[in-house]
Structure formats: C-alpha cells, structure tokens
C-alpha cells in the first residue's frame, strides 16, 4: 500500500501565498503523474495542476500564472506553490498520484486525505 500525506494548508489573506506538500510513503513503488485537485463546498473536485515524471506540467486556467507545481522524485514529494491567492481558491486540496509497484503490477491511482486552504478577503 502507498500513502499520500498532504501538508501546508491553512488560513491566509487574499494576495498571500502558501506552499502545499504531498509526500508518498510505502515500499517499492514508482510515482508517475502526480497532481493536485481541489474541492470547494458543494462543488465537484477539479484538477488544479499536474506534473509528469519528466516534469511536464498542466494547469487549470484559473490558476495559471499564480500556482506552480513541482516534484522531487528522490523525496517522493510533489509541491504546489500558490501565490496571489484569492478567496475563490478556498477549498480542500487533494494530492493524487499514479503509482506502479513493479513491472507486472500495473498502475494504481491514489488519493491523499486533503488539506484545507482558506483565503480570507
């Protein structure tokens, strides 16, 4: 089993910054595409940003130019640097990862439990 643990959420004023981290733990695994999603109250969970193992990135239009996703493969960690935060960025942010546990095991998708980001106006 692989666990994803998010950290770095909290309360910040509009215009401020936060850095989220998501560390994967377990044994004998390889992380492929990793991503951040978010879910605001009474709304669906939406993709915020994703990054492949080769560092190709993709962003939702609403965060382009403000958020940056990065990863450290040696630490099995993905980051989300969030700048110029707006109240509409308030949501629970979830880490997501495609994980392989060996050549014959295929790829399994995992979710973290989420971290709350609240942006006050």
Describe the structure.
- The chain is mainly β.
- It contains no helices and eleven strands.
- The strands form two sheets. Strands 2, 4, 5, 6, 9, 10 and 11 form a seven-stranded mixed beta sheet that branches. A four-stranded antiparallel beta sheet has the order 1-3-8-7, with no helix packed on it.
- β9 and β10 form a beta hairpin.
- It is elongated.
Helices and strands, with pairings:
Layout: E1 3-7, E2 10-13, E3 18-25, E4 30-39, E5 46-51, E6 57-59, E7 67-72, E8 77-82, E9 91-100, E10 107-111, E11 115-120
Parallel strand pairs: 2-11
Antiparallel strand pairs: 1-3, 3-8, 4-5, 4-9, 5-6, 7-8, 9-10, 9-11
Shape: elongated
Could you tell me the number of beta strands? 11
Helical content stands at under 10%
Instruction: Characterize the largest beta sheet: strand count, sense, and whether it forms a barrel.
Output: 7 strands, mixed
Determine the N-to-C terminus distance: 40 Å
Give the class from helix and strand content and strand pairing. mainly beta
Q: Outline the low-pLDDT stretches.
A: none
How much is the radius of gyration in Å?
Answer: 14 Å
User: Average pLDDT across residues?
Assistant: 96
